[in-house]
TrEMBL record:
This is riboflavin kinase. Pfam families: Flavokinase, Hydrolase. PANTHER family: RIBOFLAVIN KINASE, RIBOFLAVIN KINASE/FMN ADENYLYLTRANSFERASE. It comes from Erythranthe guttata. The keyword Transmembrane does not apply.
Length: 351
């Protein structure tokens, strides 16, 4: 990042201090945290053009388009309330087709006296929507935002933008891992209609590479082997996708194409410090295939990763996931991706 200029290194743990702040507050926090030899104003004015250039390449959170389209098609009015300036918010969303028109109200931090955590921006949003505050649902990724929403008398679902943050968001009415886990009917809103047989179709994504050694506990501890992929080579793909249990198709060069169910994330039961990708190929192999080229096309989502009171309950849940994936992959909607050319490198056909 820009910190390099000052001979400093970005510290992920400190990132949580700036999420949800106004641009000025965030700059001031960074200058203080890293003891930079500039004022917050100077830092901000150097940084703003650098960030503005990057806005166009920021991808929507998985589930964001789905949420916006669903609410619009059901006539549920939505507002966007951000501590960033109105101008910046409008520029940022201009890169996403249909977003600007979907919001009945867009409010920037420069349009209120006090930004979040003050309730002001949410009270103003409700007023402009002509909605009673008690009928509004706030979806927030930051702690100041959750505080603001609750202070405005609204129901608040937190979707933390940083991992392993659940404990910090206790004031929210619910903390979910990603927008894929939002259950609108819980809040009196029309339910999503796209779940099929316990699965949520997603925009397919793929990842592949040589199978590496994992923690050595898949088969040994759980009786469930998972063919781990190197996460280093794919850190950007992985960071784009929320942790959770997914399924799809797996291609093994020279062997074939198989159904696959996997977890992506920190495996709460084992509380790993790294985000890993753990695909279980739904096929009995006679031998290990470490080092071989494994290609995955991920087509659907099942559930968030969870913690379990016992190893047996974790194993039972994973077997449930397997059953859901096995059956869903027979649906034309998912079956068609079995022919994806990404899976067939030099491999011979099978199954
Ligand atoms: P590790 O911790 O090294 O990943 P696991 O106990 O999870 O070890 O076992 C994974 C290995 O088992 C894979 O790398 C692969 O070589 C082998 N294996 C055998 N059958 C399967 C399967 N059905 N799905 C995934 N991996 C399998
Ligand atoms: N680990 C968890 O801690 N929580 C989970 O909810 C979870 N779900 C999984 C679902 C599937 C389909 C698979 C294959 C694994 C899952 N695991 C989960 C990961 C499991 O803990 C992991 O494979 C082992 O830690 C082996 O390294
Ligand atoms: Mg494994």
């Amino acid at each position: 990042v820009h910190l390099v200029k000052f001979g400093k290194k970005w510290d992920g743990k400190r990132a949580r201090r700036i999420v949800g702040k106004t641009p000025y507050e965030a700059a001031a926090a960074i200058v203080e945290d890293y003891e930079l030899p500039v004022t917050a104003d100077e830092f901000l004015s150097e940084l703003t053009p650098i960030f503005s250039k990057k806005w166009g390449s920021i991808k929507a959170q998985p589930g964001a388009n789905r949420l916006i389209n669903h609410l619009r098609s059901h006539g549920v009015p939505i507002a966007l309330a951000s501590n960033s300036s109105k101008e910046n918010v409008e520029t940022k969303i201009s890169f996403h087709r249909g977003w600007k028109e979907s919001f009945s109200v867009i409010l920037g931090g420069d349009e209120v006296t006090n930004g979040k955590p003050s309730p002001e921006i949410y009270l103003e949003a409700a007023k402009r929507l002509k909605m009673d505050t008690s009928t509004c649902l706030v979806i927030e990724d930051s702690l100041p935002g959750v505080t603001a929403g609750k202070a405005a008398g609204m129901e608040v679902v937190a979707v933390p933008s940083l991992p392993k943050q659940t404990d910090v968001f206790t004031s929210a009415d619910e903390v979910i891992n990603s927008l894929l886990d939002l259950k609108l009917e819980k809040w009196g809103l029309p339910a999503f209609e796209d779940w099929v047989e316990g699965t949520l179709p997603i925009e397919p994504w793929s990842i592949g590479g040589p199978v590496i050694k994992g923690f050595g506990r898949g088969s040994k501890v759980l009786g469930i082997p998972t063919a781990n992929l190197s996460t280093e080579a794919y850190s950007d793909v992985l960071s784009e996708h929320p942790s959770g249990v997914y399924f799809g198709w797996a291609g093994l060069a020279g062997r074939g194409i198989y159904k696959m169910v996997m977890s992506v994330g920190w495996n709460p039961y084992f509380n790993n410090s790294e985000k890993t990708i753990e695909p279980w190929l739904l096929h009995d192999f006679d031998e290990d295939f470490y080092g071989e080229d494994l290609r995955l096309v991920i087509v659907g989502y099942i559930r968030p990763e969870a913690n379990f009171p016992s190893l047996e309950s974790l194993v039972a849940k994973i077997h449930e996931d397997k059953k859901i994936a096995e059956e869903a992959l027979e649906l034309p909607l998912y079956l068609k991706y079995r022919d994806d050319s990404y899976l067939n490198t030099s491999s011979k056909q099978n199954c």
